[in-house]
Every structure is written in C-alpha cells, then in structure tokens.
Amino acid sequence: MTAGLLALTPQGAQAQSNAELQQQIDELKAQIQALTGALAASKNAAAAPPQAAPAAPAPVAVAVAQTPPPAPASTPTPKAKAWYEKLSLRGYTQMRYNAFLSGDDTAPTGLSRLRSVHDSSISDRGSFSLRRARLVLQGDISDRVSLYLQSDFATAVNNQAGSERREGFAQLRDAYADVFLDKRKSLRLRFGQSKVPFGWENMQSSSNRLTLDRSDAINSAVPSERDLGIVGYYTPPSVQNIWDRLGHDGQKLFGNYGAFGVGLFNGQGTNRTEQNRGLMKVAFATWPFELDGLGDALEGQVFEIGGSAMLNDVQPELRSGSVSTIAYDDNRVGIHAMLYPQPFGIQAEWNWGKGPEFDRASQSIETKNLSGGYVQMMVRLPTDSVGTLMPYGRWQHYRGGWKAGINAPRLETDEFELGVEWQPWKALEFTLAYARMKRAEADERRTGRAEGNLIRTQVQWNY
C-alpha cells in the first residue's frame, strides 16, 4: 500500500510522507516494547510471594440503610434407617465326598458297620452330599437389641417312604435376640434358641472349623450344639481387643461369645419338646493371654485356656417310638486350651461326667460314666500367590453314651485324621483329609467296633 501511495504522489510530498511514516513506525516500536515489558512484569508479580497489603485508609463513617442478611437455608435432617434396613444376609454351603480305601463299610446283622454320628454319608452307599446349606439373617433392631436367625436347608428326614431317607429339608438352627446392657456392648443377655456354652469347639461355627467334624466326646454334651433358653455373656474390652486382632489376622475363632457365660436351657436338645420341669444349667469361661513378653520367639502368639460345666436331666428317645419317662442325670465338666497357629498351633479339649447309656446286660438305659476329648495340631501358612494353607492332624477318643440317639447307644471312638485346608479366596475353601477310624456304631442292636481307612473331601463356599 505504501508503494502505491509513493507512485501516485510528487517527489516532495513523497519525501515528507516517508519521514512521517518513519516517525509512526518508531512510535509503534516504542509502544510494543512498553507493552512487552508490562506483560513480563505482570507475570513476575504473579509468581512472586504475596506482599503485605498497604494499610487501608481509615474508614469514613457513612450512614447506610442496611438490610438483614437472608436466613440460611435449613439443612434437612437425615432420616434414620428403619430396623429392617440394618439387616444383613450371609451364609455358607458345604458339599462332601467320602471314599472308603478299606474297612467295614458293611457288616452282618448285629455287628457294627463303620459309621459316624456327624456325617451320614460315611456308608457303603455314600457319594456326594450336602453337609450344610446355611442362611443367616442378622442385624440391629435398635442400639441395644440385635437379632440372629439361621436355617439349614440340608437337613434329612427319615421314614418318608418306608425306610427311605429324604434330603434337603429346612430346619431352624438359631433364633435369638441379644439385649446389650451397656453402651460398650460387653455385657448382653441372649434369649431364644442358640448355642449352649459348653466346649470351645462346640461353640465354633462349622464354617470356621478346621476339621471336617466335631469330636464325639465334646459334642456328646450338646449334640447339634443348641437349645432353647436364656444365657448371659460378658467380654472385657481387653479380651475383645485380642480377639479382634486375631480375627483381623485370619485366625479361626470360636465365634460371637463372651469370655464368661452362664445360661439356663430346656436341656432336651435342638428342636425337641421339653419333657420335664428341670432346666439345663451351664457355665463357661475362657481367657486369652498374649505371650509377647516371653521372648521374640513368641511375639504375637496368644494362648487361650478355659473350662465348662453342665448340670442337666434328659429323657432319651426309645426304640419303641416314645420318649423315656425317666429323667437321667446328664452332668459333666470340661477343659480346653489353645495356642493359635502363628504359624504353629495346638488345640485340645477333654471332658468327664456321666449321662444316659444303653446297658446290654440289663437291656435298658442307665446313668453311666463317660470321658473323652481330642488333641489337634495345625500350621497356618498364608501366601500372596495361592491363598492360605492349613495342614492339621487330630486324634480323638471317647467312651460313653450318645444321648441324641435312639436308646442312648454307647460310643467307643478312636480316630486319627490328617488333612489340609486350602483357602484360595475368602469365598472358597477346600479340605482334603485321610481318616483312620475305629468306631462302635450308634445303634444298640449292633455290637463290636468297625475299622476303616477313608479319604474325605469337602468344598465350602461362603456368601
């Protein structure tokens, strides 16, 4: 455009125009430099730390009509959850397969076959079976009251068609309410059908137990582990802290029970109608000791010891189909001790007492002495790659009556079990075990003891 203007104007005017243009160009350059400097200064000021602002001039009083600030909007109060919104649903299922390697899976009439009072699938016709299919509904009704309801959908019923056994019936296992008497919930009363506090292993959930079955000796005190009544539990906060730590580490605890328990129950057994006015009286105590102060080798280890006592009168079921009119003494005491596996552990229980037992000489039920228990060793090996492995070995012994059986037959049990539990994830567990059994069958019409070697397997899924 400048070249065009120069071509259209005379030479004198062109010289004058060139001088003016040069002056304008110089002015533009100066303005650009000034703007560039101001921009750089503003960037440096933004990056520099803030400086104290100069003191503001004294305010001048001015009369201004002020309007009150608007009231803040009210925050809605959150609605408290209804009790049914605080309930949780969980459970577990166990599927088993037992295989005879050798032994007395069958026997002539009148002689004992190799059978177990805990697992009916140990037989000459045993194959896959559902040992348990439990569903638990629990939660807080209020700050001081909680409920617990458990059913088992793998219960068997006999005599539905002749002598055929039918599987997969639902049965009530637990139905109780806990009433907490203090804010820390260390003292509570339990009303309803629940575990009877006798024996450490009896109170431990089957979903949490390492071995496939409970021992005959300890479980003979309370077959099916439950009864209807009232029990009080107390757990000091120091004890609860130890159990919380063990549970966080993945240890197999004995459940939501106190360090001390005292209870009154009907005494006839799970889901059985009471037959007399007498009440079963039980007491339980256990106490964990931290062994950290005994040296580096015992750092983190916990040793627990305790005992149980029971006074009861029970009326067994008779072969005739009725219930005995005689109430037999059913009294015993027991002790337990446990070193939690970190990684090596040992667990043992024993009990002594007397209870109903069928006498072959008189062909009637009498009150007789009983004794027995078990010793168990285990190793806990948690890994990051394949989950947790727990090898174990257990020996058990029992001589005494089985009051839950018809005519309260005598059991004579000697058994050794060697197995391993593998838990790849919390939701899944596998157990593989070898068992060497020598047992009297729980049938007063059969004599002697049967022997055998078995491979036992179980898969458990938790939900």
How would you describe this structure in keywords?
463 residues, 16-stranded antiparallel barrel, two-stranded antiparallel sheet, 45% strand, single chain, disordered N terminus, mainly beta, elongated, 5 helices
What spatial form do the alpha-carbon principal axes imply? elongated
Task: Give the DSSP E fraction (strand runs of 2 or more residues).
Answer: over 45%
Spatial strand sequence of the major β-sheet: 1-2-3-4-5-6-7-8-9-12-13-14-16-17-18-19
Q: Helix and strand string, N-terminal first?
A: HHEEEEEHHEHEEEEEEEEEEEEE
Mean pLDDT: 89
Give a brief rundown of this model.
The protein is mainly beta and 463 residues long. Helices cover 14% and strands 45% of the residues. The strands form 2 sheets. Strands 1-2-3-4-5-6-7-8-9-12-13-14-16-17-18-19 form a 16-stranded antiparallel β-barrel. The protein has a two-stranded antiparallel ribbon with strand order 10-11.
Q: Can you describe this structure?
A:
The structure is a single chain. With 463 residues, the protein is mainly beta. Helices cover 14% and strands 45% of the residues. It has five helices and 19 strands. It has helices at residues 2-8, 11-47, 200-203, 216-219, 237-248; strands at 88-103, 128-140, 145-161, 164-180, 187-195, 226-234, 260-265, 280-290, 302-311, 313-314, 328-329, 331-339, 344-359, 364-379, 381-382, 388-401, 410-425, 428-439, 450-462. The N and C termini lie far apart (86 Å). The model is unreliable at 1-15 and 59-65 (pLDDT under 50).
